[in-house]
Amino acid sequence: MTALRQFLRDVWTLAIPYWFSEDRWPARGLLAVLVAMNLGLVYLNVLFNRWNNAFYNTLQDKNYGAFTHQLGVFTGLAATFIIVAVYQLYLNQMLQIRWRRWLTDHYLDAWLADRAYYRMQLVGGSTDNPDQRIAEDLRLFVARTLALSLGLLSAVVTLASFIAILWGLSGAATLPLGATGLTIPGFMVWAALVYAIAGTWLTHKIGRPLIRLNFDQQRFEADFRFNLVRFRENVEGVALYAGEADEGRTFRERFAHVVGNWWGIMRQQKRLTWFTAGYNQAAIIFPFVVAAPRFFRGEIPLGGLVQTALAFGQVQQSLSFIVNAYADIAEWRAVVNRLVGFRDAIDRVRSQVGGIRVSPGADARLALERVDLALPNGQPLLGGVSVSVARGDVVLITGPSGAGKSTLFRAIAGIWPFGRGEIHRPEHARVLFLPQIPYLPIGTLREVVAYPMPAAGVDDRALREALAACGLPHLVTRLDEIGHWAQVLSPGEAQRIAFARALVQRPEWLFLDEATSALDEASEAELYRLLRARLPGTTIVSISHRSTLGPFHTRHLQITRRSGAPGSLEEVAAGASANVRA
C-alpha cells in the first residue's frame, strides 16, 4: 500500500500541472465531454441489457411483430452507440495530442533551462536516454493515463449501474448450512465480487514482474537506437578505421539486451495470459451455470436468463478492471517511474548551487578571483586562478593536454559547476564561444551559419560575404540547401563555418578553444588576421598548442602542472611567444 500511495502521488505530480496550465480550459472541456460520452456509453449498455431481455422473450414467445419492433430498437441503439464511440475516440486523441504537446514543451524547457541537459551528462546517474523519455515516455504517459483513468471511471459507473440490475435479477440462494440453511440475497452479486477479488489478487501475483521488465525494455530499446544514430553520425570515422566488425558487435550486444528482456516479457505475459484468458472464458459460462436452475424451474424466462448473464458479465468485467488492464498498468507504472526519475534529475541539477559563482562585473573586464577547478569526481584540476582580461585584449592560453584549458573556458561560460571561486563577466556583453568541434545543426546552410541567432534576422549578403572571406566561396550559393552539414563538411570547413559565425555575429568577447586545429598553419594565420581586421574591438581569448599563434596575441597565459598538485595559470612575458607549447 505504501508503494501504491507513492505511485499515485507520482502520477498526480506528473499529471496535475497541465490541468492548471494556460491550456486548462480547452483541456477541461474536452475531458468533461469525454466523461459525458463514457457515461453515455454505460447508459447505452444498460439499455442494451434491457433490450436483450425483451428480444429473447420475443423469440421464446414466437411473437414476430414484437421481434421486428425490437430490431428497430436495436438499430437506433446501435447507431447511437457507433456515433458516440467514434467521437469519443476522436476527442480522446485530440486531448492526448494537446496534453502531450504541453508536457513536451514543459519538459524541454526544464531540460534546456540552466543548461540542465549538460550538467546531467556530467554527473551521470540513472537518467539514461533523456531523448527517449521526452519523445516516447511522455507519449505513453498521456495515452495510458487517459485510457486507464477513463476506463476506471467507466468500470465504476458500470458497476454502479448494473449491480442493482443483477441484484434484482439474481434473487436469493439458500446454501445447505445448518438446520435451516443460509439464505444469501443477490447471491450472483456476491459471486461476481468473490470471483473478481480472487482474479485480481492472482493477476497481481503473476504479473508484478512486468513492471520492472517494461522499465528495462524502454531503456534497452533506447540504448540500441542511440548506438545506431551515433554510428550514422560517425560513418566516415568508422569507415576509415574499418571498424564495421566492432560496431557490429556493439549493435548485437545492445540488441541482445533488447531480445533477452523481451523474452522475459514474453514469458511473463504468457503466464498472465494463461490466467486471464481462462478467467475471462470461465466468466462467460459461469452466470449461466449459476442462474440455470431458476430458469429450468420456470422462475425466469429466457430473456431474464440472458439479461442476468449479461448483467453478471458487466459487473464481473467492472470488478475485474485491474485483471484485464494489468499489462497496460505495468507499462504505465514503468513509464511513470522513468519520468519521475527524469524530472527529479532535472530538479536536482538545477537546484545544485555551483561552487563557481559567475556574476556581472562592475566594469568591462573579465576577472577570475581565486578560482579552483575540479573534475566531476572531485579531483583538483586548477587551483588559485586569479586573472583579469581587459576589453580589447588578445590573449593566448597554453598548457599540456588535460591541464584544464577547455575546462577553464567552460567555467567562464558558466556551465562548469565543479570547483569554487568567483568569475565576473562584463554585463550585457555579446559573447561567443567557438569549440574545437563546431556544432552544425541539421537545416539550411543559412541556419547553420547564423546559429544560434534566428536566420531570418541575418542579411543574406552578410552571410555570403562571411563565407567567402573565411575561404568557403563554394558554399555561397547553397544557403537554402537543407542538409546534415556535420556529415557534409570536412572538419576544416566546419571550423571555417565557426569563424564565419563570428564575422556575422560580431561578438564583443570571442573565445576560441583550438578552433583552428583542423586547419593548416597558413589557413590558421589567414583566419586570425581576418578576425583582427574585421573585429578590431573584440576581445579574443584563444586556447592552442601551436607556437604559430603567438604573434597574433598580445598576452600569453600558461598552465603549468606540478606532480601531486593542481595546475596553476601564470602570465608569460609578452616577448616569450616561443614558449607556446607545440
Quickly describe the structure:
This protein has 582 residues and is α/β, with parallel strands linked by helices.
Query: Rg from C-alpha positions?
Result: 35 Å
Relative strand content: 5-15%
Task: Give me the secondary-structure category.
Answer: alpha/beta
> Which architecture name of the largest domain does CATH use?
Up-down Bundle
Descriptive report:
This protein has helices at 2-15, 24-61, 64-112, 116-123, 130-170, 187-207, 209-233, 235-241, 244-296, 302-319, 321-324, 326-351, 405-413, 445-450, 460-469, 485-488, 491-505, 521-534; strands spanning 172-175, 182-185, 356-360, 365-374, 380-390, 394-398, 419-425, 431-434, 443-444, 482-483, 509-513, 539-543, 555-562, 565-572. By secondary structure, the protein is α/β, with parallel strands linked by helices. Strand 11, helix 18 (521-534) and strand 12 form a beta-alpha-beta unit. Helix 2 runs antiparallel to helix 3 (64-112), helix 4 crosses helix 12 (326-351) and helix 7 (209-233) packs across helix 12 (326-351). Residues 576-582 have low confidence and may be disordered.
